[in-house]
């Protein structure tokens, strides 16, 4: 439900640029004259290779110029580059700093992304209460991803008193606006019959549409449905496909679940090296279960040499991310 994404084209509007393909020279001229919004737009075009040769270094230079001058959307785009390590070395702390700067300038999507960082505890200490405050602000400003994320908090009861009816209302508000994260959340509520009358047909439809529309959390949940045969015919190949789509989009639970399939040769060919790659990616992106799984690999020497110090490192990280299994494995191995 809560995710960070690279280019937020539908969230930040650049009004009056109907024919961007013929406008890059105008953007450059405007940027050079100090119009920082044009610097951001030109940076987007360089990052995307839109009617211009892709140049990530140039994009970063332009986003930095815009952000340093107080243009908040430039900070957001620059933050996403640091979050994903695209064109720069990945630096979650720097990304958080940039999202905070944008949020301080009352850019609602910046507040949403900062809240996402607080949820994951990457680049900043995990803080559900701060995340709730940020999502509430974003939602009040009609930033619909913020509303969807706030719905997820009400659904889980993290940082706020659990309220399934409130969660369903927020998901519906977000989904009705066309935000796919809201649609997948609403689908999950329909599936569970939590805060809303259970309707599994509607649930499957909403979650499938959300996945097809780019919500990677929806893809993960749809993968679980296929893997378990819940409301759809059991199909491990389809499950692997949805988990792959989720993982490629940065949804770490999808990476862990895909790793499980590769580890056991279910729906895909068994591949220990791929398992290591997937759990490493998940752990690096803040998945507690991914870190625990990675610790097990190093403890028992699957696709790597046995390395108890590495195992302890990953168990410790998992424990710090609130995974009880990681804590137990750390204590057991540390006292051998």
Give me the Rg, rounded.
21 Å
Residue-averaged pLDDT, rounded? 91
CATH superfamily of the domain at 254-336: Tetratricopeptide repeat domain
- List the secondary-structure elements in sequence, H or E: HHHHHHHHHHHHHHHHHH
Number of strands: 0
Biggest sheet, in brief?
none
Hey, roughly how much beta strand do the residues contain? under 5%
- Which architecture of the domain at 254-336 would the CATH scheme give at its second level? Alpha Horseshoe
- Specify the helix fraction band: 55-70%
The poorly predicted ranges are 2-20
Number of helices: 18
Under CATH, the topology of the domain at 254-336 can be stated as: Serine Threonine Protein Phosphatase 5, Tetratricopeptide repeat
| Ends apart, CA distance between termini | 39 Å
Would you tell me the structural class of the helices and strands?
A: mainly alpha
Please report the first level of CATH classification, the CATH class of the domain at 254-336. Answer: Mainly Alpha
> So what's the overall shape?
globular
